[in-house]
Queue: 4 jobs
Job 1
Amino acid sequence: MKHALFLQSEIADPFAIYTQQQTSNPVYWDAHNGIWAVYSYAACKTILDSSSAWIPPLPVVTNAPAANLIRSQLARLSNTSQHASARETALQLYRQYTRVNIPALMQTLLGNETETDWVQAVCKKLPVLYLLKGLGVTNDDSAFILDNMPLLTQLMLSRDTLTQPSVINHIYEPAAKYVPPGVGVISNLIGLLIQAYDAGRATSPLAAGHMRA
C-alpha cells in the first residue's frame, strides 16, 4: 500500500485493505503523507488516552479570525476533556431540527435529468442539504455553503492549507443566523456539515455509477 489516505469510493474493496492492514501493519507509517495510520479502535483509544500523547497546536491562519475560532472549537480536533461539552452542544442543534422532506430534496438535486452523476449530484450534497434545511437555512445561504464545502473541510487538517480564508469568514456569518448564539454552537454545526460532506464523498462505488431514468 503506497499511502493510507484514500476515499472509499476510489477503492474496489476498501474493507479488504483495512483487514489486511490490521493483520500485517496495525500501525503503519505513511511516508507519502507523513502520518501514522492505526487500524484498530483499541489501539487508537490506547494512544489517545495515553498521558504521553501530544496533540500539536492548531495553525493560525492569517486574516481569518472566523476560521481560527471555528477550528479551535471543533470536537474532532479537541482533547478528550472538551468532548463532553461538544456533545451537549450538538444536542442543542438536534433539538432545534425540524423534519425535512427528503424526496423533495432529491427532486431539487436531480431535477429532470435522465442521466446523473450520482456522487456529484446527490452524495456530496444531500447529507449537507438535509442538515441545512432542518435548521431552516434559506436556499441562497444553503447554495453558498454547499458550494464552499471543499474549503470548509480544510479546517480539519493539522497544517495551514486554507486557500481562501475569507470564504470561511463569510460562511460563519450565515451559519450564525440559524443557531442559538455562541461560538461553540456555530462551530459544532460546521463540524457536523464537514462530517456529512466527508460521508458523502466516501460513498461506495456501487452508488457511484451513472443513474439512468
Job 2
Amino acid sequence: MVDPDKGLVIRGNPIGQIANRLPEEIFYLLLTGELPDTETLRELQGDLNQRAEVPSYVWDVLKAMPADSHPMAMFSTAVLVMERDSVFRGRYAEGMRKEEYWEAALEDSLDLIAKLPNIAAGIYRIHTRKGDPLPPDPKLDWGANYARMLGLPDPTGEFANLIRLYMTLHCDHEGGNVSAFTCHTVGSALSDPYYAVSAGMNGLAGPLHGLANQECLHFVLEMQRKFNGVPTDEQLRQFAWDTLKAGHVIPGYGHAVLRITDPRYTAFHEFGGRVCGEDEIFRIVDAIFRIVPGVLREQGKAKDPWPNVDAISGVLLY
C-alpha cells in the first residue's frame, strides 16, 4: 500500500527500511508476508536458477523482429511466445479443480520471474547490437546476474548494487497503476500468466506510465544543455517558473497519494550521493530537489510538491 505520510509499505515494512535487501528477499516477502532466513533464501535462489534458462525459440523470435522494434514490444512478444509452455493452460485443459488454479498460476509466475531478467538483458544486447545474449551465472544473486548479463563494465560493483536497489524499489505499487490493473483484468478471464503479464507490459510501455523516468531524464538533460552545465539557483527557479507558465508540469514532482518526499527517491538519492555525487547531471537533480518544491508551493496548485521515484531513477541509470 501507499501511505501518504510513509510512502510505499510492503507487507507492513516501509520501503525505506528494506531498501538494502536483495530483490529475491523482497519477492519472498511479497508472497508470504515474511522475509526469508538464509536457508530459505538459498532454496528460493536455487529454484529460480533451475527455471532461468530461456528457450532457444525465444531468441530466434527476438532476432527475427525488425531492428527498429521497441524493446518493450520485444519484451512483450518474448513473454507471449512462451505461452506455449504455460502450466496453467495445460492443467486447465485437463480439467483441474478451481481450488488448484493458484498452484498452476504460481508455477507459471515463478517460471516467468526466473526468466525475465535474462530476457530483458538479452533484448538490450540484441537491440543495441552488443552481441548475443549472455547466460546467467547461478552463483550470482538476481540483481548481480542481471547487471552481468547486460555486459556493461562494472569494475567497482556499484552498477550491480544499483540494479539490486532498482529492482527492490520498483517491486510493487499496489494494483491501481495501468500495468498492474491490466494484468489483473486479463487474469480475471482465466487467461494464463503469460497472457496477463504480456498485456501488462503493453500498458507499461505507455509514455504516462513506464516512460515517466525517461521524461524526467530529458528534463534534466535539457536544463544541462540550456545552461551549459549546472544552473545557478536563480536560473533553475526561473526555468521552473517558465515551465509552469507554459502550461507544462515539472516531471517527477507530485504524487496522487504521497504528501512527502517519496522514500524511494530518498534511497536513490543517498546512493547517487555516495557513488556519483560530483557528477554534473546528479548535481542538477540535487539542485532541482532544493529549488522546485518551493516553486510549486508558491504556485499553490500542487497538493504534493515533493519528488517521486521517477525524478531520479532514470538519471542514475543514465
Job 3
Amino acid sequence: MLWRNLTTAALTPAIFQGEFPLTAKFRGGPRNEAKSCEYWEKITPRPHGHVPDLQTNVIRFSESNWICINQYVEKNPGLTYVSTWRAASGFPKDTVLKEGTNYDPLERTEIEFPGHWVVGKSTTLSSNLNAASEEMRVSSWAALEKGPALIVATTARGDRDWDQFEYVRIKSITKDSNGEGATIAIERAYNGSPASRNFQAGNTHVASMPWDTRTKLDGRNWFINYATDCPRDKNGRTATDIMVEAIVGPLREGGGLENLGGIDLASGPLSRDIGIADYDGDGTEESSDIYWAGVADFYRRLREGLGPKRILTANMDWDYLHYINGANQEGLARPSDPWNEVSRTVNEMIIWKRLSPLPFATIAFVQYLTREEDLLYVQMHRLLNGYSACLGMAADMKNGDGLDELTRLELFQGVENKPHWLGKSLGEPKRPASLTPNLLGDGWDEIIQNMVPNRGKLVKEGDELVLKQDGRLVGFMTLNLYFDLKEKTDFVVYLDVMSSDNKEELVTREIMDPSVSVKYDTGPIRGRISNKEFAPVSFYVRGAQPGERVEFDLRFQDWDDVRFRSIAVHAAPDTLACEFENGVVLVNPSLNSETLDLTTIFPDRSGYTHLKAEEPVGMENINDKYLPQVKQALSINNGKDVNNPNKLEVLERNAVFLTANRVTATGQPVTTTTAPPPPPATTTTAPPPPPATTTTAPPP
C-alpha cells in the first residue's frame, strides 16, 4: 500500500511538489453506496479531465466504497484524498432524527457514552421522576438553563450510574417561592436518548449541556469532552480514545483506507471556548484549561496515528502547529464579509507557513454569495483562484460546463488545459502598495513624529523600534498612527512585527480591531502576532474618506514588548503580486480597478501574455444575468500579449494570470521554521480500544 514504510522521497503528492495552481474538490464524489468501483470512479469529479490535487469527502458512512477509494488513490498517486470529520461537537451515535430534518451528516458522532459530553454543574432531583412525567423538581435552579440536559442516577456510594441515564430538553424553569428549588418542564428521551425511565429523588443528578450554535439543529449538537480526565466508559475509554480510533483507525494498515492522504476536521472546528463546566464528571465545575489540554492531546494522537506524511487540516490554531498542517479555509467562504476574511487569510497563511514545521496543505472555496456577489460569480472564483495560487492553497473547483467552466480557466491555463502550469513559486507575495510613499514618513526618526503611544513608550534598538509598557496596566498598550488622506482612497497599514517576551513556548497575542477616525466603505479587522517570528501583518481599509491627521489605532493584547522592523501606511489597495517560474498572478481586492507597473514589480521578467479562453460548452444555457461575467472572463483571458506592462489594469475584486518568460526556481522558497518543539505527551495515555471496535476493511 502507498503509505507503508515510505521514505521522504518515496511519494510526493501534488500538494507537496510545490507547483501551482493547486486544485481541490471540497466534499467531492459519491457518498452513498456505489453499485461498483467502476461506477464509483465514473461519477467521481474530474474537471477538465484532471484529478484534483486535494479531495475531501464524508466517506465514513459507506464502508462498501472504501475499497473503491483505496484503488482510486493507488491509481492516482498525485491525489491527496482526505476523510472529513466534525471534531468539536455533534449528536449521539445512532440518533434517529425526524424525517426531513435539515442537518449536516458530519454532525453524527461516534459518541455513545453519556459521560463523554461536556456538561455543566449539576443539581439533584428533589422529587421522584417517573417515566411518564414531563415535569421534574430540582433542589436548585441556578445550575440549569433552557436547552439540553443530562439526567444520571447515582449508586449507593454516590458515583454516577452511567447505565441509568436520559437526555432531556428543558423547556421552561419555574422557580420556587423560596428562590432555590424549581419545577422544570422537560421533553423526555431527547436527541438519541434511551427511553424515558424512573429516577429517584436525592440520588439523581441533573446537569445542563452546553451546545454548539454553529448548526441548524438548535440544542442537538453537544460538545465532546476532550478533557484528559473526562469520565471513562465501561471499557476504560475516554471520549478522545473513541474519536481517535474512529478517525484514524481505518487509515492503519488493514483498516480499509490505508491509502488515504489524511483527515479534514471541518464544519465546526475545535475553536469554541466552552468556559467553566464539569469536565471530570464530579458534579462541580472546572476551568476549561483541562479541556484545551485534552484538545492538544487529541491532536497529538491524531498526528501519531496519521504519521508525518499525511495531512491534518483544521482551523488555523497556532497552539497546535506541530500537529495541524493545513486548514479547511472557510476564510474565503463569505465574500459578503467585505473581504475582511481575505485580509485575515493573507496574514494567517503567510505566518503559518513561516512557523509550521510540517508540510502545508490547505483548501479554499467560495460559498454563500450575496445577491450582488452572485452577479459577480465568475470573478469571485477568479479572485479565489488568485489568492489560492499566491498563498499556496488548493482552490476548490466547481463541476460542470457553462458558467462553472469559466471559473476554472486560470487553474488550467485556459485552452491549454495544463495543471500546475505556473510551476514553482519564487517566494512570498509582493505588495505593490509598498512601492507608493509611506504616509508616516521615511526612517524611524520621521515616522516616530507621526505616532503616539498610550500606556507605552517607543525605544529605538538598532534597526528596530520597540513599544514598551509604560504607565498603568489598564486597557491596552496602544500605538496611534497619524497621516493625511487627500482624497477618498483605499489604504493599507503594513507592520513587520513580533511579540518580545523571551518565552520558550510559542505565545500569540492579538492586535485588536483597529479604529479609524474617518468614515470608510469596509474597515480593518484584528490581527495576530507571535513571539517566534517577525511577520508581515496588514490592515486593509477600502474607500476611506479624506482627512487631515487621520488616526488609526493599534491596540495590543497583553503587556510584553512589541518589536517592529517596519511600520508603513500606503494610500493604495492591498494588492498581491505573485511570481512563479512560468508566469505571474496579480490580485486586486479593491472595489475599484487598479493599474500596476509590472516592470517595477517584476524587474527581471518580460514576455507577458494573457491566457487564452474560449466560449464554454453550454454557453446557450447561461442565464442572461451572467453574460457580463462571460464577457469579462473572455476579455481578461484573450490570449494577447501585454504590450504595455507598465500599465496593466486589474479590475475591481479580480485577478489576472499571465504567462511570462520562464525562469527556474533555485529550490523551494526557504522559510526558517521557528516553532518551538511540541509539548511532551500527557501521562493520560489511553488504553487500547477493545477488539470489538477495530475497524476492518469491507470485502471487495
Job 4
Amino acid sequence: MINPVYDEFPMWVTKFITAKLTDGESTVDGQPAVKYKKFTAGLEGAYSYDMKRFYWRNDDKFLFMLAFNINDDESTLVAKAEKIVAEINKNFKG
C-alpha cells in the first residue's frame, strides 16, 4: 500500500508499524488487542503469529503486508515470511 497521505503525513507508514508494536491490533469482537512483535524485514516491520500477518516498510512511502493461512509453528512461519519478503524487496520497484 502506498502512503495515502504522504504530502500531509509523510511518517504515516512508520507510525503504522510503531502502532502495531506498541498498541497491537483491535479486534471486532471486543477481545484484547492482538500483540505484534518486531519483524526484521525491510527497514522496520511487525508481525503477529496469532493473526498470521506480517507488515514491513522499505521507506516512508510504501507499506507491505503478507498474510498466511497455514498452521506452521512460529519460527517456521517467520522463516518462510523472511524468505518471501526478501524476494519481494529484491524485485520491488516503487
